[in-house]
Amino acid sequence: MTTDTHKGKKGDVLLEMKNITIDGFSDEKWHPIIKGVDLTLKRGEVMGLIGESGAGKSTLGLAAMGFARPGCKITGGSIDFDGHDLINATEDELRALWGTRIAYVAQSAAASFNPAHRLLDQTVESTLDGGLQTANAAQSDARELYASLQLPDPDNIGDRYPHQVSGGQLQRMMTAMAMSSRPDLIIFDEPTTALDVTTQVEVLVAMRDIVERFNTAAIYITHDLAVVAQMADFIKVLRYGEEVEEAETRQMLSAPTEDYTKSLWSVRALEKPENISNDTVLEIKNVDAAYAGTVKVLHDVNIKIARGTTVAVVGESGSGKSTTARVITGLLPPLTGETLFNGEPLPPALKDRSKDQLQRIQMIYQMADTAMNPRQTVAEIIGRPLEFYHGLRGRKKQDRILELLEMIELDQTFYDRLPSELSGGQKQRVCIARALAAEPEVIICDEVTSALDQIVQEGILRLLLRLQKEYNITYLFITHDIAVVQAISDEIVVMYQGGVVEQGPKSVVMSPPHPDYTQLLLSSVPEMDPDWLSNLVDGRG
Amino acid sequence: MTDTEHTYSAAGEVANLRERRTRWQMAKIELKKAPLSAWFGMIVIAIYFLVAIFAPIIAPYGEAEVFPTPFAPWGGEHIFGTDQIGRDVFSRLIYGARNTMGIALAATLLSFLIGGGLGLVAAISGNWLDQLLSRGVDILMAIPSLIFALMLLTIFGSSVLSLICIIAVLDSTRVFRLTRSVAVSVVVMDYVEAAKLRGEKLGWIMRREILPNIMPPLIAEFGLRFCFVFLTIAALSFLGLGIQPPTADWGSMVRDNASMIQFAKYDLTAALTPMIPAGAIALLTVAVNFVVDWFLHKSSGLKDDH
Amino acid sequence: MHPILGTILQRLLLGLITLFFVSLIIFSAIEFLPGDFTQAVLGQAATEETVAAFRRELGLDQPAYLRYFNWVGSVMTGDLGTSFSGRASSGVDRSRAVVDLIAPRLWNTLFLAGMAGIVAVPLALFLGVTAALYRNTMYDRTVNAATLTTISFPEFFVAYLLILFFASLWPVFPSLANVNADTPFMERVYKCALPALTLTLVIVAHMMRMTRAAIINLLASPYIEMAKLKGVSRTRVILRHALPNAWAPIATVIAFNLAYLVVGVVVVEVVFVYPGIGQLMVDAVTTRDIPVVQACALIFAATYIILNLIADIIGIVTNPRLLHPR
Prior knowledge:
The structure holds 3 protein chains of 3 kinds.
Chain A: E1 13-26, E2 29-42, E3 46-50, H1 57-63, E4 72-81, E5 84-85, H2 91-97, E6 102-105, H3 109-112, H4 119-129, H5 135-148, H6 167-179, E7 185-189, H7 197-213, E8 217-222, H8 225-231, E9 234-239, E10 242-248, H9 249-254, H10 259-263, E11 280-290, E12 296-306, E13 310-314, H11 321-329, E14 336-341, E15 344-345, H12 355-360, E16 361-364, H13 368-371, H14 378-390, H15 394-407, H16 424-437, E17 442-446, H17 454-471, E18 474-479, H18 482-488, E19 491-496, E20 499-505, H19 506-509, H20 516-524, H21 532-540
Parallel strand pairs in A: 3-8, 3-9, 6-7, 7-8, 13-18, 13-19, 16-17, 17-18
Antiparallel strand pairs in A: 1-2, 1-4, 4-5, 9-10, 11-12, 11-14, 14-15, 19-20
Chain B: H1 23-33, H2 36-53, H3 55-58, H4 89-125, H5 128-141, H6 145-156, H7 160-187, H8 190-198, H9 202-238, H10 250-257, H11 268-272, H12 275-298
Helix pairs in contact in B: 2-4, 2-12, 4-5, 4-7, 4-9, 5-7, 6-7, 7-9, 8-9, 9-10, 9-12, 10-12
Chain C: H1 3-28, H2 37-42, H3 48-58, H4 64-76, H5 98-133, H6 138-152, H7 155-169, H8 185-191, H9 193-219, H10 222-229, H11 234-242, H12 247-271, H13 277-286, H14 290-317, H15 320-323
Helix pairs in contact in C: 1-14, 5-6, 5-9, 5-12, 6-9, 7-9, 7-12, 9-12, 10-11, 12-13, 12-14, 13-14
């Protein structure tokens, strides 16, 4: 870019949204999604837009472009983008701004790139459409952008098709695409949410540097406060379509004025005192496993779990955490190795295990939505294991169900509700009650909190800890979230590419010296410190 | 924005609570909201069924009763006149409702019994049995079903029983495919895995976990398959290979009286005689389609027709 | 070898295997005939010698698998056997070769189906794509309601409605499509107008609905939203971003409906007394002329399989993931 006729000075107001209201259509009615939010962004500033699911942050971010998804409509307020009224703009006027002066970076890069075209052609499409540069100039500029975003082989990577590069690379590619026309404003919509932590770091660094270099204003949308702290100059917190507070980043982290803002990192405030025991309840020995007809996913996995403790299994996607759980439950009989329960070997396949053996190991799933039959009531869901394992019926069963509801802090009004009438946290609680109903010794928790908002996560984790204390239950806790590991575990198993990298008490694993991979994993977890990313980059060189 | 919650309570979390209602109340509410087309469809279907059930009471003459004047004009003793050998068209129309719909209903039920049952078994077993059934169905479906039906009718002849069996077996391939694909999407759900981990028997899983969740698409499919079977039987009868005389049937009635269309310029009512049974077939399929369309819109997920 | 070739070869092989099983099913039709069918064909008065000669001609003295291979062998060389009709109990054989019966009629059927297809495919694609683009407008609703009604109609109802209006009340087209080998092209088109129109109406309804659903599905992709947010114009979103990914679903829709056309032709030919293969098959079923039924079924099934195979292959060669492997 040589001439920037439309670029004003840094510090001028670029975007001003006033009293925005947006409605969404569901259940055959229009419901308010955004209820009167103001937003002001100056040139060269990065704003973090943070909130939990359903807060309306993506809707608001898209509205900053004058766009509403199908099923949404902007019902009130004003949007002024550098003198353009985006509310009353025609489609053609909006289109003239989109891709050239306002660009969008979507959450799922894999789905947002057109599979039929080369990456380079897609990168420069808006620039050429807008007549900003010649094809050659735009393409060589794109290659330079690739290089500055640390993409491998920047001269040729653009000749590839979207499915030929990795997810982290695609996400950087999309940033290059947004940057190609040197827009005044980029909307980043949860750009790293779908990535593993170690990949996320690289993408964050690349995005931050390039936005800084070209002095582009940006709105960075995420649910992760630690991430946004690295990217944004100031942060706006949204909840239920309303603004909770807005403050400069450092101030928000050190002195939030609203309790709700604090609750956004509530899980980080939890920490379980370590409890080490030698009374092994479950052990897997030298397990190798593979799914039918594919390469091995587990190599010589050994894990020991002591009674009444929590062993957290951490690792990124594809590390073999969930496969380990499937081996223990008998869903995937291992190729070699065995599972010992109270010292006795368990039959490798589910169908060979006795009712008694099944009852002692229960499982809780990540998505409580799909873990409950949508056509059964809470009472039927919790009541079935009571009937099946313990033969309870009628009055006795009903009393026990109410008792279990009390244990998970829900009252009797929940007795005959259907899953669709429960919130996310309540659903997960009912799943916990179903596991408890069997009166198990071990519960396998597979990412049970990762689909939940922070404050709800905290509630679930506290419940699990209390139940462990009261009933001496053992947890095998599978997660990718280090904050959750801190909160709940006694011992930690680190897995990488199907093998165990390290196993030991939390205090040992979490403090240096670390094996290489553990070091990489732990250092990649964003911290509530605006300087964390800079320090990390300096440290890694 | 000051009144944020200070204490967290699990029971206090916001959820979409529904009012407690019985099934009957729910149905009444849904019916009230039903569009005109669905109402039209339901009323038409109800009338057809009433006519089919009470055919002998409603029909003025017998099914195969022959009168001395063939091709009698409309009005007078015979509302829609008589056909080429002097049978009362109106009476035959009424009996035709019973025969054509009865056979179509029987064939559809049988095809759901076969296709639905095997589809469910294939989805749950997911092993060689699934492979075998699926590949077999692929091959059966590679022969267009009307052509296959024609070939089988050559061999087994056109009795009512063989007609029902042939159409049911051929149509069950489509029911199999749908049941299997819907059931497979339920089988992979965590709640089915949870039931397996609990140690539940296969029958229990099928009945309690899977079946209730695949009912809505299957009910909609039943309507569509019924239309298809109904049209196939009508077509076969029209070709002279379906329901055999003297049994009254709409398809063959069209064929028998088709030549009367040529006289439209001289006597429009005569020309309309073969159009009435054809129209009766069309009206019923339109009605069923309207109801199914509405039902698909209701049961979410299948919003856009395919 | 390019992996796409491998995938295509795999599909072709699968198609051949399907064809093999289908031919096996069609062949075995004769096995299920009641034992005394020779009498039905030759008449009650047939002498034992005539019957024996007939059975020998059919090869019924040989084991079934040998007969199957002979049958397949002759089908490959274009010999579809000899019709059952025209045989007399006296042993006088005036039966004709099935090929001679089928060849002229097959041409007629292809002509009719082709005529309907040429009109129906572009029309349906146009209606389907525009209905998807202008979703939930009056236009969309009207087209939708009209097609939902049309697909509910039996083909003969549509056919007779057309005859009533365009041949009887307002006679612009003939109600009988009696063509023969010597009919000149334009007259042939004229005579086929009503049957072709019937087929077109039925096919367009189906194909339009499927196209609409496929396009709506495609337009819901995140990359289409991304293209919009990149400021790409409406036409370019369709032409450059949607179309290259639409070939596979569109090919499937077209193949499905052309296959449907092949079957729909049976009823329409009977209505218009059109000398096509569909009518031949219906006549053969009535007279239980198994060799003709088998030949017709084989032709219909093969057309069906080949059409679907072509759609599959179009889907493969336009799939960027397969075109540009990792």
